[in-house]
């Protein structure tokens, strides 16, 4: 390695016909196994020198080409970067705007765009969301619409879906939000028709949120086959039907809005799907076997979509909300006692808000979430990690906060004090 470094001092820069090249002396005696490593080290060395003594712009361009080579050749994986970063690599200010409204870059000043939070230059990105009239999904869509997207929300109840669409549209002047009611995610043909209508009326489908879900509280022995089937059909088949109906549009969008992680995508991102799941099945939850089984399937589906469609530019991820305040789920499923008790069992000591699910959504759909694929983002204040606490006498978090040591069990540690 040392000798390669000193040999690398012999390499030089050539600038001709507007192109800059690093000329690396050939050393045939190195043999085929060492030659690629030699070329990479030599090139890196030149770029370092150039950076120290010369024009940063030129060295950045060279570094970029050198790193791209490193991705396929291998040796640069082991060479830590010594260069300053390009602005794109650390400047996140425009990211959440570019997620949906890249056209703003040419349309308004960055300052105006960031302070207004909306953009007069519509860029026609479209969100397609099932369960979009619900408390969580409507917040996800509203945040996207506020940033510049248009949307189609899908629901079973016509009035509820249409009213919610009108309400979401108030998040940004000029926003187009279609409320497509009477669509049951269990019916594939209904979803295909909804996706067709959405793309036809709004121009595309760039982001999908598969959020429609069914839930109630019952033990497994209280469930009829049809009860389990209903939840499986809504959550698992419904998510699958959503994927099938929207995938062609997502692939088109991913092709149009390519990202490489190195340069700011001029027209933002596209071709992304988020499944709204749960944490119930991580450690097991009584009265929720049907949903646990279904959400485990949804999680697996998201990974499959990531693996199979990722090479086409699609990203597929799961958001798993914990207990979120003021939602339909809480209203339908929580008792007064559990609503009161739940915050104590959450490490963050409170319930979440729909805004916090929307935040994760924007992250995954934005240029900041480019390399997150086949993953689950749990937004629960750490709750699922404590699903097993309070099983004994050590009340959470009172016992931890008291500073007491464990007593009353056989396996206690003997004090050395
Ligand atoms: N306990 C046990 N079984 C129940 C139940 C409960 N609380 N609620 C419904 N079921 C059973 C029904 O008895 C029926 O089974 P059966 O035919 O053997 O009697 C089966 O589930 C289907 O019920 P049905 O009301 O006909 O289905 P639906 O398609 O109209 O509704 C649900 C689907 C059951 C999932 C319903 O809870 C729903 O519509 N949920 C949507 C809203 C929602 O849950 N959002 C999620 C918030 S977290």
TrEMBL record:
Pfam family, one: adh_short_C2
Reaction it catalyzes: a (2E,4E)-dienoyl-CoA + NADPH + H(+) = a 4,5-saturated-(3E)-enoyl-CoA + NADP(+); a (2E,4Z)-dienoyl-CoA + NADPH + H(+) = a 4,5-saturated-(3E)-enoyl-CoA + NADP(+)
Chain ranges passing through the membrane: none
Source organism, top-level taxon: Eukaryota
UniProt keyword list: NADP, Oxidoreductase
Any single GO CC term annotated in Swiss-Prot or TrEMBL for this entry: peroxisome
Keyword NADP: yes
EC number(s) recorded for this UniProt protein: 1.3.1.124
Gene3D superfamilies documented for this protein: NAD(P)-binding Rossmann-like Domain
Record's keyword annotation contains Oxidoreductase: yes
BP GO annotations: fatty acid catabolic process
Coiled coil: none
UniProt xrefs under SUPFAM superfamilies: NAD(P)-binding Rossmann-fold domains (SSF51735)
Region (Disordered): 61-80
GO molecular function: 2,4-dienoyl-CoA reductase (NADPH) activity
Name recorded for this polypeptide: 2,4-dienoyl-CoA reductase [(3E)-enoyl-CoA-producing]
Organism of provenance: Pseudopithomyces chartarum
Lineage: Eukaryota, Fungi, Dikarya, Ascomycota, Pezizomycotina
């Amino acid at each position: 390695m040392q000798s390669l470094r000193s040999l690398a001092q012999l390499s030089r820069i050539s600038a001709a016909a507007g192109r800059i090249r690093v000329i690396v002396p050939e050393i045939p005696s190195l043999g085929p196994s060492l030659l690629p490593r030699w070329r990479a080290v030599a090139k890196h060395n030149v770029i370092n020198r150039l950076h120290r003594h010369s024009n940063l712009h030129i060295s950045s361009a060279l570094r970029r080409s050198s790193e791209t080579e490193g991705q396929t050749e291998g040796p640069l994986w082991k060479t830590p970067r010594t260069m300053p970063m390009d602005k794109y690599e650390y400047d996140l200010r425009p990211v959440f705007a570019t997620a949906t409204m890249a056209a703003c870059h040419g349309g308004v000043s960055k300052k105006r765009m960031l302070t207004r939070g909306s953009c007069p230059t519509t860029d026609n990105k479209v969100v397609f969301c099932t369960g979009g009239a619900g408390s969580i999904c409507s917040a996800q869509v509203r945040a996207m619409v506020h940033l510049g997207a248009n949307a189609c929300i899908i629901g079973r109840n016509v009035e509820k879906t249409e009213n919610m669409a009108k309400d979401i549209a108030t998040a940004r002047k000029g926003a187009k939000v279609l409320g497509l009611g009477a669509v049951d995610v269990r019916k594939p043909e209904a979803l295909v028709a909804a996706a067709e209508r959405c793309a036809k009326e709004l121009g595309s489908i760039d982001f999908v949120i598969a959020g429609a879900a069914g839930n109630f509280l019952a033990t497994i022995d209280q469930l009829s086959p049809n009860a389990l089937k209903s939840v499986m059909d809504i959550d698992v088949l419904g998510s699958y039907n959503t994927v099938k109906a929207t995938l062609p549009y997502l692939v088109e969008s991913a092709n149009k809005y390519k990202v490489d992680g190195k340069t700011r995508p001029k027209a933002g991102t596209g071709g992304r799907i988020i499944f709204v799941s749960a944490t119930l099945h991580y450690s097991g939850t009584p009265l929720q076997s049907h949903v646990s089984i279904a959400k485990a399937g949804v999680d697996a589906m998201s990974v499959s979509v990531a693996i199979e469609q990722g090479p086409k530019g699609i990203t597929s991820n799961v958001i798993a909300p914990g207990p979120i305040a003021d939602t339909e789920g809480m209203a339908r499923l929580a008792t007064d006692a559990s609503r009161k008790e739940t915050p104590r069992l959450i490490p963050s000591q409170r319930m979440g808000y729909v805004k916090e699910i929307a935040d994760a959504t924007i992250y995954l759909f934005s240029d900041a979430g480019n390399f997150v694929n086949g993953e689950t983002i749990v937004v629960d204040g750490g709750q699922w990690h404590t699903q097993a606490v309070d099983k004994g006498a050590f009340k959470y978090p009172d016992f931890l906060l008291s500073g007491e040591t464990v007593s009353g069990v056989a396996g206690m540690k003997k004090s050395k004090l």
